[in-house]
């Protein structure tokens, strides 16, 4: 018996070999598959994993992670459910990174990268980060909150080998800009700097000196406090930028200044990504034309342009793959997109007037159709509009069958097809049927269960579904839960799905990352039943002013190896199914 | 302006706060008033200037002024350019001094005393008023409720807070960027820019109650910053002598303008304060020479505006030049 055992251990494939092979595998999904083959592979994989991705910070605990993976250099961590972006989650709900950092400091001293999304990051945490990892290189905070300039000062002061500081979309309180001045004089390693979303005034002198030192800088996204003249001075230092976020365009330039800025832009021959452009108007927008020949991503979501301005701009961007605009460009502007951007793959149209305070038209199905006709490679769309028709959507997906992400937001809740007055079921039916590669879908408008039947029947690759103000009965949600094998994230708000719908997914939720349901017809009792049946799920009820003893207004369900949260605030009720 | 805590996804069960609805219903009422009188013609949309006390010819009823002031004036509607349009044309100082008188005249009935400092009779009706009314009724019919204005649902449409910065919005109670909005209040952030200044500021209109308050706040905001920028703050301040200031005062002229809901640029101070906060989307401290497009030139001569420029305008005039002077001194 022992001989056999020994033979098994001396397998022809030595551990070192396996580890070497596995070290080439990057994707966490592939690594997860490899780790499930057998114990040897599990061990080899865990010793060679250097990049960690945790899609829900509460699905696992720092201790479990520390035990399994000894050598991590890069961490990507996501916290709050996505609807927290729209203020549906009370503050102090959780997703605080501190406990994770404490563990990282102990177990992964050679940590180099940390990328956080929707997490709360305190100044104390940033300070801990800055002091604990001597080789730290990249910090990215996407949609995070909780920090001030004090935390950023710590990062700037202590992270000597920093190559990336990206504070994308993290809006904090009005903070000071002194942190930028804290990069030491000898510090020159920065390659990516993005502080576009910070509302602070930085010292331009410090910024200029920093930029002049960092010869490897490839991405620079400044905030609104930087004006055109200052931008020019930065650009002449780093004309080799591949990504640029400008500051404000609201400045009066003399003809000489105008020429200077224009020439600085024209010297940026490597620009692939352009954003910022606050308050850019027809007056100064042409300044950037010279930099747009190799542009693949143009983010105009801070510049409320009209159709004419966009139409003049686009012909300069012949390589455009991704375009974000505001709906002030109107359907006419989108027609220009269809004409000028044949290579377009991604389009996002944001509303200037989301609450319809000013009765602005925005865009309609006409614009969307125009884009679909001119841009057959379209695979990602985020479209905010007030009017849509089933026919238009059906035509759009005929023109562009390769959609992987289709996010249509008809802004008035429960809005029907504006020509036929019918529900928008057929539109999303067409999307589900035609777009076989569809991974992400956001539905809107007046929808009955029919829409969800279509989704459940046809959207076999669907991973993320967002639903609001829709459905006619529990059956709708049930169709999706039973029909979409790859579903990972389901977020629902303001629908009439109740306990029966919730419980129809008993077997499903452990295969998913999370389920969010708010303002639906769930009761505490129903949630308790779910918790009782599925002990490895965390069933959290967030209590707010619309909850009472029976009605569960905000419910967040997710699989977890870590059990109920230890850090849940008093208004979060984690159900354990104790007393039904 | 507090947001209705509305969670009814059918849509519209709570009316918007009273100021807003009074604004719209007044406009609507006034508009229908005009229509009933059968006088909704192009003539009514014509913008006219006149000295105080003079009656614009062929004006019917007393509806003109209330509407005009309440809604703002749009002669040509929106167009591609963002140039300043003809609007109510008065100097800022006049507007502030005369502001108190506007508080009441919304009822669309009586003639209003335009104040002794002079001003303009505006007898124009916004062309878009009937559509607004229709739209409101449509929405109401669709929602099967009494004609209430659109209620806002928390977190809908799903837009990130930072994107709302392109347009000043009434943020719902929980939408506080940094926990600062307090309970039960909302914010109304607008951008303030100044020609020649290198940056924009954002202010919360809700924290001010009158034009005087906002003007002194802006004065502090822009003068302090620019003065502080040159050299080391206090030392720099000492460099700016009174004579400098006086020089600069006569050098050029700044006026405070705002962009309203329609994208039109108007002089600040012509409408009652509440209406201003309702329709103001963005503020701009503009050079007087540019403001001539607002038709100020004649009025300026007539009413001797230069002499009545506010102190904050003085200091702000000083700012950019002062910076240059400081730099050369340093």
Keywords:
heterodimer, A: 580 residues, alpha/beta, 21-stranded mixed sheet, 20 helices, 32% helix, 16% strand, globular, B: 330 residues, alpha+beta, five-stranded mixed sheet, 12 helices, 5 strands, 39% helix, 8% strand, disordered N terminus, disordered C terminus
Give your account of this protein's structure.
The complex is a heterodimer of chains A (580) and B (330). By secondary structure, chain A is an alpha/beta fold. Chain A contains 20 helices and 21 strands. In chain A, 32% of the residues lie in helices and 16% in strands. Chain A has a 21-stranded mixed sheet. Chain A starts with a helix and ends in a 5-residue tail after the last strand. Chain B has twelve helices and five strands. In chain B, strands 2-1-5-3-4 form a five-stranded mixed sheet. In chain B, helix 1 packs across helix 5 (129-143) and helix 6 (211-229) runs parallel beside helix 12. Chains A and B meet through loops of A and helix 5 of B.
Determine the number of helices of chain B (DSSP H or I, runs of at least 4 residues): 12
**Strand portion of chain A, in percent?**
15-25%
Contiguous low-pLDDT stretches of chain B (5 residues minimum) are: 1-44, 52-149, 166-186, 224-252, 295-330
Q: For the largest sheet of chain B, list the strands in their spatial order.
A: 2-1-5-3-4
* Tally of alpha and pi helices of chain A: 20
The radius of gyration over CA of chain A amounts to: 26 Å
Number of strands of chain A: 21
Q: What general outline of chain A do the C-alpha atoms trace?
A: globular
- What is the mean pLDDT of chain B? 50
Average of the residue pLDDT scores of chain A: 93
> What percent strand of chain B?
5-15%
Binned, the helix content of chain A reads 25-40%
- The succession of helices and strands of chain B, N to C, reads HHHHHEEHHHEEHEHHH
Number of DSSP-assigned strands of chain B: 5
Q: Termini separation of chain A (Å)?
A: 52 Å
Pfam families (chain A): F-box_5, LRR_6, Transp_inhibit
Organism (chain A): Salvia divinorum (Maria pastora)
Protein name (chain A): Protein TRANSPORT INHIBITOR RESPONSE 1-like
InterPro entries (chain A): COI1_F-box, Leu-rich_rpt, Leu-rich_rpt_Cys-con_subtyp, LRR_dom_sf, Transp_inhibit
């Amino acid at each position: 018996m022992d001989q056999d055992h020994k033979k098994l251990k001396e397998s022809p494939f030595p551990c070192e070999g396996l580890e070497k092979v596995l070290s080439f595998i990057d994707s966490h999904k592939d690594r997860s598959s490899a780790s499930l083959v057998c114990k040897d592979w599990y061990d080899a994989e865990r010793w060679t994993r250097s990049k960690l991705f945790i899609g829900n910070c509460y699905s696992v605990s720092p201790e479990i992670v520390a035990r399994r993976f000894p050598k991590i250099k890069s961490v990507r961590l996501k916290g709050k459910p996505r609807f927290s972006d729209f203020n549906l989650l009370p503050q102090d709900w959780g997703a605080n990174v501190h406990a994770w950092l404490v563990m990282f400091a102990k177990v992964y001293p050679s940590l180099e990268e940390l990328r956080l999304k929707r997490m709360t990051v305190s100044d104390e945490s940033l300070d801990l980060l800055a002091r604990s990892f001597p080789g730290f290189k990249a910090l990215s905070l996407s949609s995070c909150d909780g920090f001030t300039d004090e935390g950023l000062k710590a990062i700037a002061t202590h992270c000597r080998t920093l190559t990336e500081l990206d504070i994308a979309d993290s809006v904090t309180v009005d903070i000071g800009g002194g942190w930028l001045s804290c990069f030491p004089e000898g510090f020159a390693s920065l390659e990516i700097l993005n502080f576009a979303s910070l509302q602070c005034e930085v010292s331009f002198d410090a910024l200029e000196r920093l930029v002049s030192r960092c010869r490897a800088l490839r991405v620079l996204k400044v905030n609104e406090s930087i004006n055109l003249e200052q931008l020019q001075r930065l650009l002449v230092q780093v004309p080799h930028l591949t990504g640029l976020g400008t500051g404000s365009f609201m400045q009066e330039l003399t003809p000489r200044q105008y020429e200077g800025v224009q020439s600085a832009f024209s010297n940026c021959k490597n620009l692939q990504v352009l954003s910022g452009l606050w308050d850019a108007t027809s007056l100064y927008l042409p300044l950037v034309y010279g930099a747009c020949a190799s542009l693949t991503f143009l983010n105009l979501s801070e510049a409320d342009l009209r159709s004419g301005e966009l139409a003049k701009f686009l012909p300069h961007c012949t390589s455009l793959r991704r375009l974000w605009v505001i709906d002030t460009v109107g359907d006419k502007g989108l027609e220009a997109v269809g004409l000028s951007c044949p290579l377009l793959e991604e389009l996002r149209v944001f509303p200037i007037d989301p609450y319809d305070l000013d009765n602005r038209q925005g865009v309609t199905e006409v614009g969307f159709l125009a884009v679909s006709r001119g841009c057959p490679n379209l695979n990602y769309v985020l479209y905010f509009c007030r009017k849509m028709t089933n026919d238009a959507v059906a035509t759009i997906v005929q023109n562009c069958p390769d959609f992987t992400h289709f996010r249509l937001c008809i802004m008035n809740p429960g809005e029907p097809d504006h020509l036929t007055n019918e529900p928008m079921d057929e539109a999303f039916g067409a999307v589900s049927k035609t777009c076989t590669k569809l991974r992400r879908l956001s539905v809107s408008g007046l929808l009955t269960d029919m829409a969800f039947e279509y989704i459940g029947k046809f959207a076999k690759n669907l991973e993320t579904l967002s639903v609001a103000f829709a459905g006619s009965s529990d059956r709708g949600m049930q169709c999706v839960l039973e029909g979409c094998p790859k579903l990972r994230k389901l977020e629902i708000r303001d629908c009439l799905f109740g306990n029966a719908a919730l419980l129809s997914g008993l077997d499903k939720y452990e295969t998913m990352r999370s389920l969010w349901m708010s303002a639906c017809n769930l009761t505490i009792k129903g949630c308790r039943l779910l918790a009782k049946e599925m002990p490895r799920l965390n069933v959290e009820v967030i209590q707010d002013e619309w909850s009472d003893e029976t009605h569960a207004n905000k419910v967040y369900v997710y699989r977890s190896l870590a059990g109920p949260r230890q850090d849940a605030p008093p208004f979060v009720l984690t159900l354990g199914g104790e007393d039904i | 302006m507090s947001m209705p805590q509305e969670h009814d996804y059918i849509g519209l069960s709570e009316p918007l706060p009273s100021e807003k609805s009074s604004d719209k219903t007044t406009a609507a009422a006034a508009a229908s008033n005009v229509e009933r009188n059968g006088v909704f013609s192009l003539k009514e949309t014509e913008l006219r200037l006149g000295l105080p006390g003079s009656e614009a010819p062929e004006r019917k009823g007393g509806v003109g002024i209330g509407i005009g002031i309440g809604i703002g004036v749009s002669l040509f509607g929106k167009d591609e350019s963002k140039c300043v349009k003809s609007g109510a044309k008065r100097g800022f100082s006049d507007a502030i001094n005369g502001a108190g008188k506007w508080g009441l005249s919304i009822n669309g009935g009586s003639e209003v005393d335009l104040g002794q400092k002079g001003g303009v009779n505006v007898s124009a009706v916004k062309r878009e008023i009937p559509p607004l009314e229709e739209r409101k009724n449509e929405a109401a019919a669709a929602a099967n409720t009494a004609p209430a204005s659109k209620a806002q649902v928390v977190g809908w449409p799903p837009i990130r807070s930072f994107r709302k910065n392109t347009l000043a919005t009434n943020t719902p109670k929980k939408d506080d960027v940094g926990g600062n909005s307090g309970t039960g209040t909302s914010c109304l952030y607008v951008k303030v820019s100044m020609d020649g200044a290198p940056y924009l500021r954002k202010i919360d209109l809700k924290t001010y109650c009158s034009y005087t308050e906002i003007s002194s706040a802006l004065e502090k905001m822009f003068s302090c910053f620019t003065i502080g920028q040159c050299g080391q703050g206090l030392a720099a301040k000492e460099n700016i002598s009174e004579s400098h200031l006086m020089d600069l005062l006569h050098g050029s002229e700044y006026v405070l303008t705002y962009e309203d809901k329609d994208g039109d640029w108007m002089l600040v101070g012509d409408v009652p304060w509440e209406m201003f906060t309702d329709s103001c989307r963005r503020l701009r401290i503009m050079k007087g020479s540019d403001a001539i497009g607002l038709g100020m030139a004649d009025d300026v001569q007539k009413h001797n505006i230069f002499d009545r420029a506010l102190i904050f305008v003085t200091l702000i005039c000083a700012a950019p030049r002062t910076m240059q002077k400081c730099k050369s001194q340093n």
